[in-house]
Amino acid sequence: MKWLNALLGKRTRTAKDRAAKKELEEDGENFTDHRLDISEREAVAKSLSLTKSLRENLKMIREITGAPGDLTIREFKSGRGQVETVLLHLEGFVDNKLVENILRMLGLGSFQAPVGRGAGPNLLQEFRRRLLQSAETKEVATVDDLWNALTNGYSVILCHGSATGLACDTWGFKYRNIEEPSTESTIRGPRDGFIESFYTNVALLRKRIKTPNLWLEEFTLGSLSRTKVGILYIKGLASEELVQEVRQRVSRIKTAAILESGYIEDFIEDNPFSIFPLLFQTERPDRVTGCLLEGRVAVITDNTPFVLVAPMDFPMLLQAPDDYYEKIFIGSFLRLLRYFAFGISVFLPGIYVAVIIFHNELLQAQLLLRIAAAKEGVPFPVVAEVFLMEILFELLREAGIRLPRAIGPAISIVGALVLGDAAIRAGLVSPPVVIIVSLTAIASFTVPTFSFGIAARLLRFIFIFLGGAFGLFGIQFGGLLVLIYMSSVRSFGYPYLAPVAPRILQSFKDLAFRAWWWRMNTRPLLLGAREPVRQPRGQQPRPDIEEEEKEKTGKGRKNDH
Questions:
Q1: Is-contact 216 230, C-beta < 8 A?
Q2: Which of 71, 83, 7 is nearest to 39 (CA)?
Q3: Of 19, 166, 172, 537, whose CA is between 20 and 30 Å from 316?
Q4: DSSP state, 73?
Q5: Residue pLDDT, tens place only, 151-166
Q6: Helix (H, G, I), strand (E, B) or coil at 499
């Protein structure tokens, strides 16, 4: 074959490879037997163009793809000249009803139906004219373009005598239904969540932001996976420098496959060694909508329900949708409770260890005697007790996640109760340690973001070590180091601890306490500087003013009469 010989002629190899080349040239009719590596096979697909010979095209396609069972090839003759024609599609990617409709529209149900007078290119043009009103069509000229069309849900028509094919949109891939995200449930608010379909996720955002200034830029990443990735932002609201930075970081990714948004997160985050998440990830369209309206940029990846948002800051990790849907006092109380619970989940075990070992004077004598009596007979020091129970709870938590949903929570709860009680009865740990570790685990469940919860769990072990080695001074020193580190971290150049460091007073209205919506007149200063005003002032509900306006309107009508 000409294309195979041309490929083999370009290969420059060692003596062993040259011998393999000679063997390949002698047996060059079977492409599937060749010892070409993946980069060379990809080069073949990208360099091969379709020919006017239909049989040659089908032979190339079968040899390059391995003639898979899901590749359907329908052969027939069409037109008055009975031109050899084939329709190709991949099972599972297309809607069979759409395929049958295309065949019916082309008049191919009967061989006697006149479809076109000419052969090859003229016949394809006739096909395109007939299909233009019912399906999206495009021409394909290479094997690579043809395969991309097939994997994107197109059916491709090839005719003898034409060096191009006609791809018709027959997408019918089955996705799961839109449902509430299991990782970010709320009491009040929308119940829809992202799914694994790229354009469905985009549509969920356009449903909420109907302005034409919601711009989408698409990329294809992964030389093998060819995953569709898009950046979404509001033109004129998001900073052009931020959009350019996100565009540059995404477009420079060169890898074999992108299977999930976590791959992209590793490539584009500012500090790959940070244990804190530097891009916000969520399954909720309403949260992404709120971020876009503040001037942030969303990164959407095909085949995953998780959308990335850049830049992000620390307060976003402890905010939940319920904070904005409930009354201000309820939302603010829940947010403060979340901050308090996060502090408990990080510092409580370390503080307990530090107080028991170094600072007994901080406890009442009666409480200290009870703790000492409970610890009587335990063979391990308090640091080992806490470490043992923390590791045990982490194992139970991980087991509960990996087990089927029907039995996962039950196993984790029953396991915690049984093992905790058994450890106390066996004298391996004391009851106060079980209480401390249980309270810490409960507090950690209040963190809305899973990735941030894992970071808090890692910090917890560090503070247990510091508390056991240096007491409360070690806890204080470690907390100061973490605070300094977080102050230096950036997310796409945006300060991680904003609006606390740097201090931006106007953004405090959505920090620990949430202000009323009629008071949130401006966007975050560092993000929405292009359009800082979100809404006009003076919208506080005032029933007395409304009555005065009614009276003025009534007096005006009387004067008119």
A1: yes
A2: 7
A3: 537
A4: E
A5: 999 999 998 888 999 9
A6: coil
397 with 412: CB under 8 angstroms?
yes
Quote the CA–CA distance of 430 and 375 in Å, as a whole number.
Answer: 5
Q: Cα–Cα distance between 531 and 239 in angstroms, integer?
A: 10
Residue 177 pLDDT > 50: yes
Residue-wise pLDDT for 359-384, tens only, equals: 988 888 888 888 888 888 888 899 99
Q: Which residues contact 201 (CB under 8 A, 6 or more apart)?
A: 194, 195, 285, 300, 305, 307
The answer to whether the beta carbons of residues 152 and 173 sit under 8 Å apart is: no
Q: Contact 530/239 with Cβ under 8 angstroms?
A: yes
Contacts of 103 by beta carbon, 8 Å cutoff, 6+ apart: 74, 87, 109
Distance of CA 68 to the CA centre of its chain: 31
DSSP string covering 150-188: HHTTEEEEEETT-SSEEEEE-B----PPP---SSS--SS
Spatial contact of 280 and 291, defined as CB atoms under 8 Å apart: yes
Phi/psi of residue 156, each to 5°?
-110, 130
Domain map (residue ranges) of the chain: 1-46, 48-169, 198-312, 337-495
Q: Say what the pTM is.
A: 0.85
Burial 269-302 (b: 16+ CB within 10 A, else e): bbeeebebbbbbbbbbbbbbbbbbebbbbbbbbb
Q: Which two three-digit tokens encode residue 92?
A: 């599972």
Question: 380: Cβ–Cβ under 8 A, 6 or more apart, which residues?
Answer: 388, 428, 429
In this predicted structure, the answer to whether residue 422 has a pLDDT above a threshold of 90 is no
Average pLDDT for residues 335-363, to the nearest whole number?
92
pLDDT value at residue 111: 42
Of 144, 140, 139, give the one whose Cα is nearest residue 44: 144
Task: Over range 372-401, report the average pLDDT.
Answer: 86
DSSP collapsed to 3 states, 243-287: HHHHHHHHHCCCCCCCCCHHHHHHHHCCCCCCCCCCCEEECCHHH
Indicate if the pLDDT at residue 250 is higher than 90. Answer: yes
Going by the DSSP 8-state scheme, the letter that residue 8 receives in this structure is H
Locate 215 and state its tokens: 């711009």
d(CA 504, CA 489): 17
- Using alpha carbons, select from 324, 285, 100 the residue that is nearest to residue 200: 285
